[in-house]
Amino acid sequence: MEERSTFENFEMQLNETAKSFLKEIAKWAYFLSIVGYVGIGFMVLAALFFGSVIAGAGAMSGGGMGALGAMGGTFITVLYLIIALIYFFPVYYLNKFASNAKQAFRTDDTESLTKSFEFLKSHYKFMGIFTIVLISFYILIIVITMIGAASSAF
Q: Is the confidence at residue 6, as pLDDT, over 70?
């Protein structure tokens, strides 16, 4: 017969202090997600505005910039839109965590609280993977720069 450990039989419960902490976390997470959505909106507007300005400056320079001016505007627009898209996911996960946590405490629903923690996990997982990608990118840039500096020294 297989015995279960004490930890396997243990059911965790939230006391009032933990609940109040989670309620406050949900409020701040909701605030930060709204600020994040506004920031994404500004990024999309900046993408359209700065891309148009750079493309217009290229056209107004008498064709001196030619295709480079138009390409620069398109590049800036696409770059800002990609950044806004990447920024959307952690903000979305944070918003869903906050909304589900607030609903869980409003209706005393364990399923909503579990769902909120699922979104919080997704938020941190995304941020962790994104951090690993950025650190790898920085290391790659440093290595390429060192190789370039070493080859130009000889």
A: no
